[in-house]
Design goal:
Keywords: Hydrolase, Signal. The protein is of the alpha/beta class. Helices cover 37% and strands 20% of the residues. It has helices at residues 3-13, 68-84, 106-112, 127-145, 160-171, 188-200, 229-241, 264-276, and strands spanning 28-34, 41-47, 60-65, 92-96, 148-158, 178-182, 209-216, 248-255. The radius of gyration is 21 Å and the shape is globular.
Length: 282
């Protein structure tokens, strides 16, 4: 092979001649939003539906996610096909990330736990404040800047996020229309959430919501977990059933072979299909 041809051939194949480009989730953006009370700043990951720019008169349901760095990519990818094919209602996806400047899981431990527990090294018990931030600041920001259907809000949380969603359901059930609670950490603070559930059951009137609870079958002490999370999830499910609310629909899913690390993708897509399927069936 002539030297000039060889040089050209090597240049074409050289990685530097075709520099890698960063991948971006289509129709997505990140904005910083300040909690008007605590003054902490939380990035919001926002993805718009494919038809958003063309259907200028349409308002869209919104899916709100905890643990945005983990959940946003999963839910964005998992909903792409069902939404684009018309099997699932198109929705805006909003991932609420952790407070800027927090280290490790400091923000999520504080924000997602309903009660203070002195046995934890990290601060706990900030769920009430975080719930208020979402209701007052996040909801208002979305309503002011996007075409949102305020009657069609879906919450998705996993692990401590599932605990947080359960807290919202018990204290302000009309904040969301749909609750998808994945592998909820009901073991936190000696299962104090169950006491709250018993107390809240006395005041549950005219609840209009869909609640989807999912747990991996291996989330038990007999298999892989340090806690009896399957049993706890089933217990919470039974407590909700005792409310006997006509407009409250509840579904429980135990995911075969899944553990705490692998259950969430199934939780998210099956839960969303249950609440947003265009041919919804119970």
């Amino acid at each position: 092979m002539p030297l000039l041809v060889l040089i050209i051939f090597l240049v074409v194949l050289s990685p530097s001649s075709n520099a890698a480009q960063p991948f971006e989730i289509p129709r997505s953006s990140v904005v910083d939003l300040q909690d008007s009370t605590s003054k902490r700043i939380y990035p919001l990951f926002i993805k718009l539906p494919k038809s958003y720019s063309n259907n200028i008169d349409k308002k869209y349901p919104v899916i709100y996610l905890t643990d945005a760095w983990y959940s946003f990519q999963i839910v964005s990818g998992a909903t792409r096909y069902p939404m684009n094919s018309g099997k699932m209602a198109e929705a805006i996806i909003v991932g609420i990330s952790y407070a800027k400047g927090s280290k490790g899981d400091t923000s999520r431990v504080l924000d997602y736990t309903p009660s203070k527990n002195s046995q934890w090294k990290k601060n706990t018990g900030g769920a009430q404040q975080h719930m208020t931030f979402i209701e007052k600041d996040v909801f208002n920001y979305m309503a002011a800047n996007y075409r949102v259907d305020t009657k069609q809000r879906t919450f998705i949380g996993n692990s401590l996020g599932g605990l947080f969603g359960s807290y919202i359901l018990l204290t302000k059930p009309d904040m969301f229309k749909n609750y998808i609670l994945g592998s909820p950490s009901y073991w936190f603070d000696n299962k104090s959430l169950f006491a709250l559930a018993d107390k809240a059951s006395l005041n549950m009137v005219d609840i209009n919501a869909n609640v989807f609870i999912a747990i991996g079958e291996r989330e038990s002490k007999a298999l892989e977990s340090s806690y009896e999370m399957v049993e706890d999830a089933q217990q919470f499910y039974q407590k909700i059933l005792t409310w006997q609310q006509e407009k409250l629909t509840v579904k429980m899913l135990v995911i075969p072979e899944a553990n705490h690390q692998t259950a969430f993708p199934t939780t998210a897509i099956q839960g969303l299909h249950w609440v947003l399927a265009t041919d919804k069936k119970t």
